[in-house]
Amino acid sequence: xxxxxxxxxxxxxxxxxxxxxxxFEKEVEKDLELANEIKVQxxxxxxxAVVGKEQFKxxxxxxxxxxxxxxxxxxxxxxxxxxxxWWLVGLLAIVLAAFLFWKLxxxxxxxxxxxxxxxxxxxxxxxxxxDTDDQQLIQALSTYYKEGAYQAFIDLHRTRGxxxxxxxxxxxxLGISYLQIxxxxxxxxxxxxxxxxxxxxxxxxxxxxxxxxxxQEGDVTKTKALLxxxxxxxxxxxxxxxxxxxxxx
Amino acid sequence: MNEHPEATLIKMLKGxxxxxxxxxxxxxxxxxYEAVRQLVRKNNGTDDEAEDIFQDTLLTFYTxxxxxELELHCSIQTYLYSVARNLWLDELRKRKKKVxxxxxxxxxxxxxxxxxxxxxxxxxxxxxxxIRMLDEKCQQVLIHFYFDRYRMHQIASLLGFANEQVAKxxxxxxxxxxxxxxxxxxxxxxx
Lengths: 249, 191
Hints:
- The structure holds 2 protein chains of 2 kinds.
- Chain A is mainly α.
- Chain A folds into 2 domains: about 5-105; about 115-249, Tetratricopeptide repeat domain (Serine Threonine Protein Phosphatase 5, Tetratricopeptide repeat).
- Chain A has helices at about 1-10, 20-30, 30-75, 85-105, 110-120, 135-145, 150-160, 170-180, 185-195, 205-215, 220-225, 230, 240-249.
- In chain A, helix 2 crosses helix 3 (about 30-75).
- The termini of chain A are far apart.
- The termini of chain B are far apart.
- Chain B contains 8 helices and no strands.
- The interface of A and B includes residues 52, 71, 149 and 152 of A.
């Protein structure tokens, strides 16, 4: 009996070797009573999981309270700053506010971060499947991008991107992924390369996201310098967005 | 050579020492709770809901490590954030809210079975009611064995049994007792 119990435990807890498991499954097929015993024990395991989870969560609540009580204590134990420091902080805040006010009113523009947040839209790029490409790799890259797993997309593209044929759409996704994780300089380089590529259909997109990369960096001069190409061509992709950006800068 | 901090943390979580498991969970709270809180708050959630999601996230991580020998191909941060993100997306879908999330971190796609640990059926809830009828010691023996996946020698030292054999006997008795209770209550609880 005990032997059966141990075997069932090993089976249900996935502690059997492949050969033992196959042999045991054959045994179960022939023995109705054993099959029923396994069924009941599996139900018990499911019930124990419910109780186990409750207890685990109670334990987590206690751990959280202790953890953040410690953090709170550490904070209150830090030396209180002297009052003159508060005066200094206040003074600096006033100077900073005055500087920002002067900067905004003299340039006449809005905060680049605000404009970026308003104008940035993720471009959904359908990946063109090619016969010679590794379909799984293409699928993985598409899924990462679609799911917003930008770092994973970048890592996979960096390590295995060279195995693929030219995919301007993936290059655009790569640049946008860098933008999403706030690596504007890297994004800018990718878009600049795409602008020089043999895929004219992507040139306007590349220029627009290169502009956004400059904006994310807070470089208004560079942003303005990149704009004319899209502003001058009424038929260019992103012409309207470029116009709005120029108005707000 | 020094071990990578994440490898140490995983070793602590998978280990036998309860204090070290607690210490590891505390570290996870310190390092990753805030990112999950931000994610939930930025997507129509409250602090309490963030707390629930983080608990389920840690529970998933813990059981995956214990039950499925989880092998991470990304950082702990990315894994936890991805689990939390999926859980919160599910919650928003249940409420039929807009499901495009504002992300505060990067995430990876997860296999569906990663979150299966959180599924509970009516039948398992009913079985839990019967389990709660057992005495405290029996509940602990069975939970440590079947949920925490501790080995008998660990259970013996944790619960103060003289040796591994005594723990083994106790577990057998408790399981038998539970099966009897289940049979008795089968009709009552529609098990």
